[in-house]
């Protein structure tokens, strides 16, 4: 994903089917939303939480459980 700023970004590996998440950085907090339902709400992560999450996602986009 591109460097985050206050604009919404979607992963560069995301296809054009719209089935992805978008993220942005606002006031030091990472906000994530569903690109198919952007008005449905969002989830907020601290930088540490976000970095921990990203580190646990493998190259295929799968979340590795401990």
Quick recap of the structure?
By secondary structure, the protein is of the alpha+beta class. The protein contains one helix and three strands; from the N terminus they run βββα.
The radius of gyration is 12 Å
- Secondary-structure element string: EEEH
Helix content: 10-25%
- Tertiary shape: globular
Distance between the termini: 24 Å
Number of strands: 3
Task: List segments where confidence is low: pLDDT < 50 over at least 5 consecutive residues.
Answer: none
Largest sheet: 3 strands, antiparallel
Strand order of the largest sheet: 1-2-3
Count of helical segments?
Answer: 1
The structural class is alpha+beta
The portion of residues forming beta strands comes to: 15-25%
Mean model confidence by pLDDT: 82
List the helices and strands and how they pair.
Elements: E1 21-26, E2 29-34, E3 43-45, H1 47-55
Antiparallel strand pairs: 1-2, 2-3
């Amino acid at each position: 994903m591109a460097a985050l700023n206050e604009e919404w970004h979607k992963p560069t590996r995301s296809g054009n089917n719209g089935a992805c998440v978008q993220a942005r950085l606002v006031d030091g907090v990472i906000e994530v939303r569903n690109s198919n339902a952007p008005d449905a709400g969002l989830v907020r992560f601290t930088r540490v939480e976000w970095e921990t999450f990203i580190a646990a996602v493998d190259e295929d986009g799968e979340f590795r459980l401990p």
